[in-house]
Design brief:
Largest sheet of chain B: 9 strands, mixed
Structural class of chain A: alpha+beta
Strand order of the largest sheet of chain A: 8-10-7-11-9-12-13
Low-confidence stretches of chain A: none
Distance between the termini of chain B: 9 Å
Largest interface: A-B, 32 and 28 residues
Strand order of the largest sheet of chain B: 2-1-3-4-11-10-9-6-7
Radius of gyration of chain B: 16 Å
Oligomer: heterodimer
Mean pLDDT of chain A: 93
Largest sheet of chain A: 7 strands, mixed
Radius of gyration of chain A: 26 Å
Number of strands of chain A: 28
Structural class of chain B: alpha/beta
Low-confidence stretches of chain B: none
Distance between the termini of chain A: 60 Å
Number of helices of chain B: 5
Order of helices and strands of chain B: EHEEHEHEEEEHEEEH
Shape of chain A: globular
């Protein structure tokens, strides 16, 4: 008899985040009133965070297949073949809600969680990246959040011992109540030694490994499935506490027992801890699972079944071991000083049974919990698309040189050195391109192969036109990988949106997914893993509906270099080289950083993305890099041509002289417009003719627009700006802001 | 050169170190577990690598310094055996009493991963014979607690006895507080013990040894060690 106290009331059901119709589904499914533990289990499995109930129907439209895809979405992480018997395992995941409530621990455990997803599959993590979105720099809380999140990411990754090689940081008032922390981890495994979550075999021991279970993080996943209100601060106890030291031990111990052939199936305990991991292992393997909670290593006495099943204590794993290898596995875990306990077994009955203190606390159908969670086709509407903005109608508030100096000192475009210097980006000795370039490059083992890694999205484009914005996020990621000479292989997506119960938010979600799908198809860049984070909005007192974040579908891409020594960097290499602009420039100012930062307008349609042009221009640039014709390469994105040129100059200390803007485009639109599918490359003067001829033969639009040299950047007839001065603007803002030296609101 | 790299729980630069030792000496080092009580017979060089031993949850290096293997390391050092202690290794060596002083939180209270410039103060030690005295080398740092502090007498002794081996300087070799990455007393980045056979340093020479990855200024330290040990053999 399952203990049935306390009584399940509608209030209790609501507190568990289950809607009345969902609770009815529970009743229909089990034919009786659930116990409190069972209610907790349903709540954990059927919340948005774990079940993807609002997003699943749309996620299915993403292209997930490709010749090199070994494992697409649905496992702990995606897996792609990179040749030589090796596989790259990667995923990006959000830890948005916890990072707002408690920035250090929220961000730290976000990194810990994604690392576990990767090494659970048998891969040794080789790199981390992240994509961070913060509120308005003038908001009184922003500085505290930046400081805590960055310290938390560094604190975890540095101690764990994986280089954090890249990422992005942006600021916008729409993230004021909801910052975003998206963490990506990348690992390398032997292609024939990938480990999966699906259990197999009846009567196999289920083993609990890692840290002890405590009362932290209970209902973390449910918290991440609701919008914030005035009480968000009071949710601090739902945030877990990270222990990178234990995770490092867990990594070494897991890889050791995998290497020794002890493991049948493995699943990390992330969101909804023991519940989610046990159910997934059973459901994926078409097996039942029985857990005996009296065997679970606990941090404190007197924990109830409910608490144990919902705890999100970190650094824990669940495994199904080969029975004959049990002793060997236990010895390895003891050597690393970690807990090891047999807490259950697989059963034939497809039931999820939880025992505690002699009672059965839960007895539920495992498939329905795992595979058959509710699914919604939520209503959605498309917002009206803004009209394209005519650049002629945008009055330039200042000269081009002044504008450039101002723009590179804005929060979104300035140097993020203050951030990435707090991340160990060189540990493991394989970092070829450090943060600050288009994509990070890491050597694979002893080479010669290298992986290029980048995270991208332009939320203001997604807000103005979700479809074009979704396309652009993928295209920009593809472009960044291409700009270092890599062949883009696959992506992980981390889709951050507001409340999906609002049709306009659901419209953003659907539009972005359609754009992502279209771009991934056109660029042969499949999605192999991902994560959805909804309810990123805050209801402020006195307002009827919440304020949602900008739609932010972060794209994390992986590309392959056959020879890492051939990767291109963005720095000018020497004086006297020709600067070539690849791709069409129309002077697209709508939704540009220039328009927002210097004209105070967030208007117009975002630049359209022509995926055929993207592919053709990118393939051309990659060929120039790989055959040694291009000495430097850089993609054009936020801030357009002038900002890209400034970045190439600042990275090298070498200046450049550029031809004036063409007559048919207003100067400020030419220099700062954000037309897509564009790159800058430099080539030795002697090769310009040959490269232009190649471009012509391939119908790629390429123009020689200037020459490197000197110590200043001169844009046409504008006043020259010393590279040294550019650097002062570029490097100055963030350290000054974080030191509290800039006026706050 | 027979080297042994110590592995404590939470150490994480042992692979970087082992790879560099193998690359430059041509011989894989032995990886020695913290719970062992003996070093492999014939060990020429003990390396205490970087990382976060025991999570740095007490004082950095304090728990590792009391591991069983450290008795063997102290005996090795007392016999004149060479010991290289890098980053967390430097912190462990100080806690173990192999070197004087302590590494405090960085002056700006943040973890910093950045290339720094070091002036090699002496070239007549087994660790620096691959460099010229006064040479400036570029190596990376990655630490939150590398701010070297000792009492005034100890500092005076270290300076007077020429035991400061590496100092944070500007790229041109000038002493400049702006380039003292962590605020160390006298910009001290590395010191040796009285006998000259134990070196502790915060930066990571093992991460700057391959031209394919850029700077190779760390090679000199390992090449010098190989040469010193081969000559002694």
């Amino acid at each position: 008899m399952i203990p049935n106290s306390p009584k399940i009331t509608p209030e209790l059901v609501a507190e568990h985040g289950l809607k009345p119709d969902e609770y009815k589904r529970v009743l229909d499914l089990i034919g009786r009133e659930p116990s409190l533990t069972e209610l907790g289990i349903f709540s954990a499995m059927w919340n948005e965070h774990c079940s993807y109930k609002s997003s699943k129907v749309h996620l299915r439209t993403l292209p997930t297949k490709g010749p090199h895809v070994i494992q697409g979405p649905g496992e702990n992480a995606g897996v792609i073949d990179i040749g030589d018997g090796l596989a790259c395992v990667f995923k990006m995941e959000s830890h948005n809600h916890p990072s707002y409530i408690e920035p250090y621990q929220g961000a730290a455990t976000g990194v810990g969680g994604i690392l576990r997803d990767v090494f659970t599959m048998g891969a040794r993590p080789i790199a981390c990246l992240n994509a961070l979105s913060f509120g308005d720099p003038k908001h009184p809380k922003t500085r505290h959040l930046v400081s805590g999140v960055v310290a938390g990411i560094g604190g975890y990754g540095n101690s764990f011992g994986v280089p954090t090689v890249g990422g992005s940081v942006r600021f916008h008032a729409r993230y004021d109540g909801n910052n975003l922390v998206n963490a990506m981890a990348v690992g390398i495994a032997q292609k024939d030694k990938i480990f999966y979550a699906a259990a197999s075999g009846v009567g196999m021991p289920i083993v609990y490994l890692g840290s002890k279970t405590g009362r932290d993080g209970i209902h973390g996943a449910s918290m991440a499935s609701a919008e914030f209100g005035e009480d968000s601060e009071a949710k601090r106890p739902t945030v877990q506490v990270g222990d990178p030291f234990s995770e490092k031990l867990l990594l070494e111990a897991c890889l050791e027992i995998m290497h020794k052939g002890c493991v049948i199936a493995i699943q990390d305990m992330g969101a909804a801890g023991l519940t989610c991991s046990a159910v997934e292992m059973g459901a994926k393997g078409d097996l039942g699972v029985t857990l005996d909670l009296d065997k679970v290593p606990c941090r404190e006495d007197g924990m109830s079944a409910y608490e144990m099943m919902l705890s999100e204590s970190q650094e824990r794993m669940l495994m199904v071991l080969k029975p004959e290898k049990e002793k060997e596995a236990e010895a390895i875990f003891r050597k690393w000083g970690l807990d090891f306990a047999i807490v259950g077994e697989t059963t034939p009955g497809k039931r999820f049974i939880v025992r505690h203190g002699g009672d059965v606390m839960a007895d539920l159908p495992i498939k329905e919990l795992g595979d058959q969670a509710p699914e919604y086709k939520r209503p959605w509407v498309n917002a009206a698309k803004p009209a394209a903005l005519d650049a002629e109608e945008v009055e330039a508030p200042m000269g081009v040189a002044d504008a450039l100096e101002k723009l590179i000192a804005t929060p979104d475009l300035c140097s993020k050195r203050w951030v990435w210097e707090q991340y160990d980006h060189i540990i493991l000795g394989n970092t070829v391109q450090r943060p600050g370039g288009d994509a990070a490059v890491v050597r694979v083992e002893n080479g010669p192969k290298g992986l290029a890694l980048s995270t991208d999205v332009t939320p203001r484009y997604c807000e103005a036109d979700p479809f074009e914005g979704g396309k652009q996020a993928v295209a920009e990621c593809w472009r960044n990988l291409t700009a270092v000479g890599a062949r883009p292989l696959a992506v992980t997506d981390n889709l951050n949106f507001g409340n999906p119960e609002r049709p306009e938010i659901m419209g953003q979600f659907v539009g972005c997914i359609r754009g992502i799908a279209e771009a991934c198809k056109a660029l042969a860049f499949p999605v192999v893993s991902g994560n959805v984070s909804l309810y990123n909005e805050t209801k402020f007192p006195g307002e009827d509906s919440g304020r949602a974040i900008l739609p932010t579908p972060s794209i994390g891409g992986v590309g392959l270099l056959d020879d890492f020594t051939k990767s291109a960097t963005l720095a000018f290499k020497r004086a006297g080289e020709a600067i070539l602009l690849v791709g069409e420039t129309t002077g697209w100012l709508g939704q540009s950083v220039y328009l927002r930062e210097l004209c105070g307008r967030e208007e117009g349609a975002p630049p359209p993305v022509d995926l055929i042009e993207e592919r053709e221009n990118g393939d051309f640039v990659r060929a120039l890099i790989l055959d040694g014709s291009a000495s430097a390469a850089h993609d054009l994105s936020d801030g357009g041509l002038a900002v890209a040129l400034a970045e190439m100059a600042m990275a090298s200390g070498i200046g450049a002289k550029l031809s004036a803007a063409p007559d048919d485009i207003p100067a400020h639109a030419y220099w700062f417009g954000e037309d897509q599918a564009r790159y800058l490359v430099t080539v030795p003067a002697a090769q310009v003719k040959a490269v232009l001829e190649r471009a012509k033969a391939a119908s790629i639009p390429v123009w020689a627009i200037g020459t490197t040299g000197g110590d200043a950047l001169t844009l046409g007839d504008e006043r020259p700006i010393l590279v040294k001065i550019l650097r002062e603007h570029f490097e100055g803002w963030l350290p000054a802001y974080m030191a509290g030296e800039l006026p706050q609101a | 050169m027979k080297s042994a790299v110590l592995v404590f729980p939470g150490i994480n630069r042992e692979r970087d170190m082992a790879r560099t030792l193998a690359l430059i000496s041509g011989r894989e080092p032995a990886m020695v577990w913290h719970a062992d009580t003996q070093l492999p017979a014939g060990t020429d060089l003990v390396v205490i690598p970087g990382g976060f031993s025991y999570g740095d949850y007490l004082r950095c290096g304090a728990i590792a310094a009391r591991s069983p293997i450290m008795d063997a390391v102290r005996a090795h050092a007392a016999m004149g055996g060479l010991t290289l202690a890098v980053c967390n290794g430097f912190q462990i060596a100080c806690e173990a009493g192999l070197l004087p002083g302590v590494l405090m939180r960085n002056a700006r209270l943040r973890f910093i991963c950045r290339d720094v410039y070091l002036k090699v103060e002496r070239s007549d030690t087994p660790f620096t014979r691959g460099y010229n005295a006064g040479q400036v080398i570029r190596v990376p740092t990655a630490h939150g607690e590398g701010n070297y502090v000792a009492d005034a007498d100890t500092i005076a002794r270290l300076e007077g006895e020429g035991r400061v081996i590496f100092r944070y300087v500007a790229p041109d070799g000038a002493r400049d507080p702006a380039w003292n990455v962590n605020g160390s007393t006298n910009a001290i980045a590395g010191i040796i013990n009285e006998r000259g056979n134990v070196l502790g340093m915060m930066p990571h020479p093992e991460n700057h040894v391959e031209s394919a990855l850029g700077v190779t200024d760390g090679r000199g330290l390992f090449e010098g060690l190989v040469e010193a040990l081969d000559r002694a053999a």
